[in-house]
What we know:
Blueprint: E1 19-25, H1 28-38, H2 43-46, H3 48-51, H4 63-67, H5 70-78, E2 82-90, E3 100-111, E4 114-123, E5 129-139
Antiparallel strand pairs: 1-3, 2-5, 3-4, 4-5
Amino acid sequence: MNAPTTMTYPRKIPKVGETAQVRKTMTVADQGLYSGISGNIHPLYVNEVHAQQTSVGTRLMFELAVASLLTNSLTEVGGAFCRVSAMNLTFPNPTRIGDTVAARVEVTAVVGDRVTCKVSCKRDEGGLVVCEGTAELVEVK
């Protein structure tokens, strides 16, 4: 019998100015999964008839589901030994189901084992900012 394969991950040292970006179209399936995990059944997010009565005219994506796209980019700049220790986010505009969103991070400071990043999510349509703020990564030793 063969021994299990062990993967090794190199330690990465993020550099100021380093960026990463991921793009994803937010789907009904994403909405359903997030609603199931969070238990949130607010009508703006899950009831199309109700949402059509708003100025947006359709269901919105959960803001934290959109913000979760940032974790992919944060992992890319932080590497396999960093985790998110803090996020400070605002959501100036809504994201609709079906919108394609680009989640971008930029390393702004590296002090010891702490990495600070500027983060943003923008809708492809018109480049409208739907999430912005900062995130901090720390090394897990």
